[in-house]
Amino acid sequence: MEMARNVFAENIDALKGMLLLMGNHLERSLEELRNLLQKRDLKSFEFVKTEDDKVDQLEIEIEKKCLSILALQAPVAHDLRFITGALKMSTDLERIGDHIRKIARKYAYYMEGTDAPVHPAMVDMINILRGMLKDMIDAFNERDMAKARQVIARDADVNAIQKEFFREIIDVIMKSHNAEQASACVHLLFIARSLERIGDHIKNLGERIIFMETGELVLGRFSTQTDVP
Hints:
Layout: H1 2-39, H2 42-73, H3 77-113, H4 120-142, H5 145-175, H6 179-214, E1 216-219, E2 222-225
Antiparallel strand pairs: 1-2
Helix pairs in contact: 1-2, 1-3, 1-4, 2-3, 3-6, 4-5, 4-6, 5-6
């Protein structure tokens, strides 16, 4: 029995390590995305693609590990919440990687058609998101529920910037008589929307972490306590 428990603990540690590694890859990807937008360096685009491939592979490995644990060791209570939460966390992290890659590709395409500088609002959003992701990964590693809740609240800052940016860009499109300028603005709207979605996924991570640790379901402004110990 003790040996089985040791094996289970090793599997849990391995899962945690893979999730932390996914988070580290995504932090670097967000930094390179900012470099792409600010320096217009296509090497950053290639870096983002490589990191996304690593994140995709880790998601597959986590899914296999979780299914193996569920099938062979039948975890319950807190352990079961951790396994199912890890599955969902890996999905959110993988989708963050997808959004970063799509933004990088869209901006690389945008660069080909315009010499216009990046809008500072997008850089602000990336800076906030990178800080949110780092702090959320720290909250997971440290089992710090207060920090997870604080990061969830910061998603409102991203939403506020995105809404203001949308209003500004839509106004530019409405007043524009230049088809190329209007097309470039559409690309920027897509990028801003994708950045906002990254914030949603980071918020999801916080909700998963709180449930894994406490059994509390955090759904937007509402939360409920489950009966699972």
